[in-house]
Amino acid sequence: MEVILREDIEKLGNRGQVVKVAAGYARNFLLPKRLAVPATDANRKIVEQERQAHLRKEAKLKGEAEDLSKLLNGVRVTITQKAGENDQLFGSVTAKDVADALAVKNFTIDRRKIQLEEPIKQLGEFKVPVRLHRDVTSEVIVAVVKEE
């Protein structure tokens, strides 16, 4: 069965692409979740209009993310934590802590966009990437200092 994808689906295709899938997969998964529509001429026109609107919206979001990236690049935040011997932290610094520290500096960034591979468990300075958009990534310097 041929369907037109309305969303990007990993290992299947991108938005607006016509793909051939099993009838059961289309009927039971793609169509009920509105991820695809049957490949008819009328649907092709509708999906093309949706795709154009999505591209305009995506370009606007990317532009905003690039502007925010310029402001955010090299911003330094300091987080104080209790630490024991050998500069080992009691607990850890997570993406939520970094997002809260950025909020104090008037940057509203979702914690899921902060790309911390694993929580910080040492004192020191760390460069933490912040993925603002699929194509736009910025770096924030996080200084973890010992609480007196």
What does this structure look like?
15% of the residues are buried. The chain contains 3 helices and 8 strands; from the N terminus they run E-E-H-E-H-E-E-H-E-E-E. The mean pLDDT is 89. The N and C termini lie far apart (66 Å). The strands form 3 sheets. A 3-stranded antiparallel sheet has the order 2-1-3, covered by helices on one side. Strands 4-8-7 form a 3-stranded mixed sheet. The protein has 148 residues and is α+β, with helices and mostly antiparallel strands.
Brief summary:
This protein is an alpha+beta fold and 148 residues long. It has helices at 23-30, 41-72, 95-104; strands at 2-5, 18-20, 36-38, 76-81, 88-93, 120-122, 124-131, 137-146.
Helix content: 25-40%
Low-confidence runs of at least 5 consecutive residues: none
**Widest sheet, order of strands:** 2-1-3
Instruction: Give the overall shape, derived from the CA principal axes.
Output: elongated
The largest sheet, given as strand count, sense and whether it forms a barrel, is: 3 strands, antiparallel
Terminal CA distance reads 66 Å
Total beta strands: 8
Strand composition percent: 25-35%
